[in-house]
Amino acid sequence: MSAKFQSVRGMRDVLPDEVATWQHVEQVVRDVLSAYAYKEVRLPVVEVAELFTHAIGDATDVVSKEMYTFADRSGEQLSLRPEGTAGCVRAVIQNGLVHRGGPGHKLWYQGPMFRYEKPQRGRYRCFNQIGAEVYGFPGPGVDAELVCLCARIWRLLGLEGIRLEVNTLATRDTRDTYRAVLLDYFQANADQLDADSQVRLEKNVLRILDSKNPEMRDLIEQAPALIDYLDTESEQHFGQFCELLDTAGVAYTVNPRLVRGLDYYSRTVFEFITESLGAQGTICGGGRYDYLVEQQGGPPTPAVGFSMGLERIVELVSLKTPVSGVQPHVYVVARGEVAVSAAFGLCERLRDELPWLRIEQNAGGGSFKAQFKRADRSGASFAMVIGEGEVQQQLVSLKSLRTDDEQAQVAMDALSKELNTLRAQSRL
Ligand code: HAM
């Protein structure tokens, strides 16, 4: 029977069987972020639409094709956030976290992002990112720190075969010079541009390099590369960044074609890519955006960050070592009104006395046989059996569901002690 309502196309539910892997990934990422002294910020999912247009650039796919934008009841144009950086910049300016010459900030956030893309494996219209953003440090040290932090996360998650590509997009001035060179090149080859690229030629020629159309690949491959037009300062910054990665033993390749899909980048950019997920193999991307804070009305503040796509990382982890979910220690089987009511009170008392205990009470009645089946399926180590006879004698029967050990009878008063002992013996 199909449900009356379906989730929105490209938006998926994460069901209990998958949640254990999600929680594991999130925990590892959070632990590493706090080990590097990053602090969490929680940001709204909705921002004024113009924030994104302004920050991300109106010639990007994200802004021109993928935003969920709507008018609220007062007629204000709002968007579901397609990414976290723009909102984070808004928040640090609005809350006075960045001020001229003030201390730097290392922040991280997590949450759903929304892009109206064509759904496919690893590409959703509602997806989750964990991102980190650092404000106030111009040197390449934080760029390298962010990359090392990510590489550490992949190691701790046991992920292998993840490639790191790096590039530099230089300073604004250098990019202006390069833009002119690129404009000449694409104008000279205008007959080979697809419709999208014709528009980009007008709006922001650099975005043509980001085209995903295979028919444009050769033309893009042969285009002049920014790396050949670098100013000394950008070259040094990038050189030091690469040296720091060498020092840390993090392998990378320089990809002069790596431009990233958002307009705010300058200097360092990087992506982590896997071949194990099909076409959507980029699990994490980021870079420097030294002009964005100022462009959004804040004081000139260098900044750098990354975001990782959790759906893709969770899929990679599941392919390798799925994480099993949390199971109850004890499943309570009770039959008859008196026993069910006594079991209810007993469970609550045990939860008071043993906060570590995971105890599931049978729901929905059923014969002893049916309840034992559920107990087995629950994954619990023990069944705690309570019938009317047990209630009269104020005891319960404890039966191991995973070993052939004899069933034991335990006085209700002595249950906490007995469960503590079983735990100490690692039998629960
Ligand atoms: P982004 O490259 O657009 O960068 O996205 C970062 C990551 O989010 C991607 O590498 C991918 O893993 C995941 N992702 C993106 N779109 C989808 C989708 N439709 N479905 C599933 N996963 C997706 C940013 O968002 C920048 N804000 C990163 C950044 C932070 N740069 C500086 N600071």
Tell me about this structure:
This protein is α+β, with helices and mostly antiparallel strands and 428 residues long. It has 2 domains: 16-171 and 231-320, 2-Layer Sandwich (BirA Bifunctional Protein, domain 2); 330-424, Rossmann fold. The protein is 39% helix and 20% strand. It has 15 helices and 16 strands. It has helices at residues 16-35, 49-56, 61-65, 85-94, 140-156, 172-188, 195-203, 217-221, 232-248, 292-295, 310-320, 337-353, 368-378, 388-393, 415-424; strands spanning 39-40, 46-48, 68-71, 77-80, 105-114, 126-135, 163-168, 253-254, 268-273, 282-288, 303-309, 330-334, 359-361, 382-386, 395-400, 408-411. β9 (268-273) and β10 (282-288) form a beta hairpin. The radius of gyration is 28 Å and the shape is elongated. It starts with 15 loop residues before the first helix and ends with a helix. The mean pLDDT is 95. Histidyl-adenosine monophosphate binds next to β6, β10, β11 and α11.
